[in-house]
Amino acid sequence: MASAPLVLLAAGGTGGHLFPAEALSHALHRQGARVALITDTRAAEYAGSFPAESLHPIPAATPSGRSPLKMGLALLELAKGFAASRHVVKAVRPAVVVGFGGYPTVPPVLAASFMGVKTLVHEQNAVAGRANRFLASRVDTIATGFAEVGGLKPAQVAKCVQVGNPVRPAVIEAMLPYGDPGTGRIRLLVFGGSQGARIMADIVPPAIQLLSAEERARLSIVQQARSEDDDRVRKIYGDLGIPAEIAPFFKDLPARMAAAHVVVGRSGASTVAELTVIGRPSLLVPLPGALDQDQAANAAVLEKAGGTIRILQPDFTPRRLAGELSALIAEPSRLTAMAANAKSAGIPDAADRLARLVMQVAGIKS
Predict the structure, then answer these.
(1) Helix/strand/coil for 70
(2) Which residue in 105, 236, 253, 329 has its CB near the most CB atoms, within 10 A?
């Protein structure tokens, strides 16, 4: 195996970047390739179980904000990361370097490009992020999660190949048929990720209070809530007599998604990919404030496919949510249709598709 070609994955910053990299790593191993991971020092702390033969932490930072000092310090960190990345690329001699977006991937992909190593970036969102836009003109290929990706120039679009968004093995294992709720209990799953759990605690319980007693009797709820919001969320559901499980984090989220009849959450690329692969209807609230509005674009694609109801955050009020839920409870066949529509938009073999593309770009025969 030591003589097998090595693929260097560059991913860091968030789970949204590490999850697809992890899925690709498993797929590359099946293709007979070796894998190493280069990541920022922050992500390296929780990447210990990543399926790679070696882990290489490098300095990185995100140049954002209006402070010239902070911008300068971030650029200095990226310059240090570039120098460190050159050493790593020279030492491990990869056949190709694959970046997953976010500024921690800029130094290694840029270093590889300058050193004549084949490069590829994967864009998970329906609008290219700033880091990938910066790298787009230098890389050999741009793999995409969606059929169309905004924010790229025509010459960069010509490099795009849609493969879908790789999902974790736990998501593939959760691919169970959708259980039509009919006149029975409707299982509602609510989560918001690290930046969204608070608004879900503020909006969802009051929305449930606005439903009729008959509608509430149809529901059971599983909700992610921060520890500081746990008591108030739990109390509202308890007072209403609704079966509810509240926790700050669910390690088995794909299984919870598969068990749900409808999901309320954010629309990050990984969430949308998991919803489509498993095939579950949803009400998605894009995270506001992002420069690229990537979550709004992701949700719009799934909305067009008929798999979700997109609610922009200014419109995400208890009354609006209660109205949407009430309509779905009254017509559960809509949920079944939305589940089928979401499923039709899924690409469950995205990791294998991306692995084949990576091997092709590197000129490796599997």
Answers:
(1) helix
(2) 105
Q: Specify whether the CB–CB gap between 271 and 250 falls below 8 A.
A: no
pLDDT digits (tens, 9 = 90+) for 129-159: 999 999 999 999 999 999 999 999 999 999 9
Q: What is the mean pLDDT of residues 187-216?
A: 91
Please give the DSSP secondary-structure letter assigned to residue 149: -
Nearest-angstrom CA–CA distance, 92 and 63: 28
Q: Where are the beta strands (DSSP E) in the chain?
A: 6-10, 34-40, 54-58, 96-99, 118-123, 141-144, 160-162, 186-190, 219-224, 244-247, 262-265, 282-284, 308-310
CA distance 117 to 113: 6
> CATH: 3.40.50.2020, 3.40.50.970, 3.40.710.10, 3.40.50.2000. Which one for 172-344?
3.40.50.2000
Going by pLDDT thresholds of 50, 70 and 90, the confidence category of residue 178 is very high
- HSE, CB side, 13 Å, CA atoms: give it for residue 347: 19
Residue 70: closest CA among 106, 78, 81: 78
